[in-house]
Amino acid sequence: MSENVPCEYQIDDELIECNHCKNTMFIKGAAMLNTAKMTFLGLDWLNRSAVTLMCDKCGLIHWFGKAPTPKYNRS
Ligand SMILES: [Zn+2]
Q1: pLDDT tens-digit profile of 47-74?
Q2: How far is the CA of 36 from the centre of ligand 1 (A)?
């Protein structure tokens, strides 16, 4: 479980960039959504699986309902 290395991600061949600072390096996280706990937050529509990408620069967390694809091949 060493997935918390910053890297670029894409969805549908579209490179993900931070909504705030336009950074493209993210730290991936899996939100363990417990439906019972999320219901009172109004997030039960997420239905227990979501992927989070935290911007490596400003820390803004982006939520994704489907898994972003890591993009390893750039240096
Ligand atoms: Zn950012």
Answers
A1: 557 889 999 999 999 998 888 999 876 5
A2: 30
Euclidean distance between CA atoms 9 and 71, whole angstroms: 5
User: What CATH number has the domain bearing residue 39?
Assistant: 2.20.25
Domain count, the chain: 1
- State the pTM of this model: 0.71
Rounded to the nearest angstrom, the distance between the alpha carbon of 31 and the centre of ligand 1 is 19
> Nearest-CA neighbor of 22 among 68, 51, 49, 62?
62
Say how far apart CA 43 and CA 30 lie, in whole Å. Answer: 15
